[in-house]
Each structure stands twice: as structure tokens, then as C-alpha cells.
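G., the chain you wanted modeled:
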Amino acid sequence: MPGYTTRELTVQLGGHGYRIRALSDKQQFSDPTLAAERAGISSSLWSLFGQVWPAGRVLAEAMCTFDVAGKRILELGCGLGLSSLVLQRRGADVVASDHHPLAQSFLVHNAALNDLPAVAYHDLPWAVPDAQLGRFDVIIGSDVLYERGHADQLAAMVLRHAQPDVEVLITDPGRGNSNSFTRALSAQGYHVTEHRSSFEEGDTAPFRGRLLSYSRSTASPGPLENRP
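Predicted structure as C-alpha cells:
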């Protein structure tokens, strides 16, 4: 026995039903080799990678219609890899990344559940520069700004791994840390648009959840913010 329990969900996205193995609940924890401890993942945070979160669904739904042609795409904090699975089904050049010791094995399992080839995976701690990863045309993430310090870490990550012409898409349930991230990317020359939307059934306007889309083009440099 692995020391934790799982369940299988079916998530409907873009006309497809994705079978997803997830942790049974947020009380699961197992770290017999102390790999999570070495990665700085506490027992209270350990299970979060293994859930299907509303922000993850919103990002995955956006990936169902996103223009992927000729683009190298990086998913940050992929967790169960829902968006990367959507992109893999569409034939995109995608790399999923996380730093949880079980993220890769769950991603492999979920790709197989959906009869998809294994998704390329990269172990990526946000605070540590990685010279091997390279640069991307698109960088995506769902609910990756859940702690105050993550805005600076992710802005530095984007600086290291973004192509000069690049799009960054982040789904944020409204935790209050996105403004710092937006200011940091604006200083890097990005234009930002913000679309507020319902993340969960029963949400009413004005919505806290938002899809943040940042773009930078060498054809029209210069920071600009556009918030409804």
C-alpha cells in the first residue's frame, strides 16, 4: 500500500471526459522517504497537489481552445496535470512541471488513463534557477499565487524561461497576490488583460476568480496594464 488513498474522477472539458486519479481527500499524507520534507512540503500542504481545483478546471478549459500551433508551452505547478493532459490530447509541445515528489507518477498514470502518450515532465522548484529547462512561448499556471512570496518567485521564473515574444496565462481565485505579480510583469514589458469569471457553481458577480493573460511582443514593446 502506498500510504495514501485515491479516487478516480471524470472531468468534462472541451467535449471530452478526462479520467483523473486524485487523492481521496485533503487529509491524505505519506512521506516515508522524507522526499516531501526535503522539498519543503509540509504535511498540511502535501495533499494539495492531488486535488482537482476550480482554478485548474478554468485553466484546462481555456487550453481546450488556446492557439497551440508552433508554441512550446510550460505548465507551472501542474499538480495532477489537467491542463497538460488537454494540451497533450491536442498535440501541443507541452512540458508539465511541479516539485511534489508524486506529481510525475500521477501525471504518468493520468495520461495512461486517457490513452495519451506520457507528458514531458520537469521537476522545477520555483526559487532555484534551472539552466536545463530552456525558454517557452507560453507559460501557464493555475492558483500559483497562493502565498505572498510566490509573486516575486514566479516573476523571476518567467524572466528566466520566457521567449521575447511570449504569453503567460494564470488563473487566480482571488487570493490577493496577483497585483504584485502583474506589477512585476508589467516592468518586464508585458501587457495584461483580466477576465473575471465564475470558478465554482453558485458564484455571482462581481466574481473573485479571474483569468490573467499577459503578453509581450518585440513588435510593440513597453509595459501597459488594462484592468476592467
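Residues 223-228 have pLDDT under 50 and may be disordered.

Shout if anything looks off.
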